[in-house]
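Note to self: user wants both folds in one dump. Writing first protein now.
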Amino acid sequence: MVLGIWTLLWLFFLVRPDKDGQYGELAYFYSHGYESRVESLLGSGLYEYLRFCRQNLPAGSTYRLEGLGELSVRRVRARYYLWPLRMVGDDPDFIMVYGDTGRKFPGYRFYLLDEGRGSVYRKEGGE
């Protein structure tokens, strides 16, 4: 009896109408590699920018990410993708700016540009 009810609940869960393409996404995730999965989660622009930063920043650096919402899911995913770089709130080695925020960062100088996606600033006095 319990097994029958459990089976019916799972069948309802699998065929309910509010899935909105989740099965297609799941098939995509199972059929593609890690980098393709990350790109689909972050979006191609943010993914390319983060990959650029990951390749060009020294290992063990600290950073602050600008241009994404403070508590957004994309920010959390970006932080996960950039590991082992460490995100800090105050006094980071680098400030990564996704998009054009128009902000100035006193004590930091321009370091890298990822054409059309964002830029990176390095703390003055850093090597």
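First done. Writing the second protein, which came from a different request thread.
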Amino acid sequence: MNLPAIKPLAEPSRLPVLLIEDESAVMAYVRTALERYGYDVVCTESGAEGLRLLEQGDFLGVVSDMRTPGGVDGASVHAWLSQHRPRLASRVVFITGDIANEDTVATLRKTGAPCVEKPFRVRQFISVVEKTIGKAP
């Protein structure tokens, strides 16, 4: 009996995490942490550029600073995702150094997205990422 040849499955494409962070030192720290735990990462310094990247490509999740230059903050990114990529809206992790700010508190209540306060330890951050976005493929 001749069985058809079985083709090996192609490795599933690895979707990157989009990191939106305007402070270069924080971006490097977060990127290194994510990559060390197996995530591919695409970085941008502004929410506006983050939205352009989200319009053009697919991502596993988004890690975003609450405040970024250019008029598009973390809340705006989450609102865009809710409207245009609802699957990703539940895969957002915010990072901020200003957790007590009223706008930050209101955004966190409205979105239900987790927030990790700067400065943070890598393991604490990765734990939140894994619970929200999923473990790296």
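Dump finished. Worth passing along: The longest helix spans residues 24-36.
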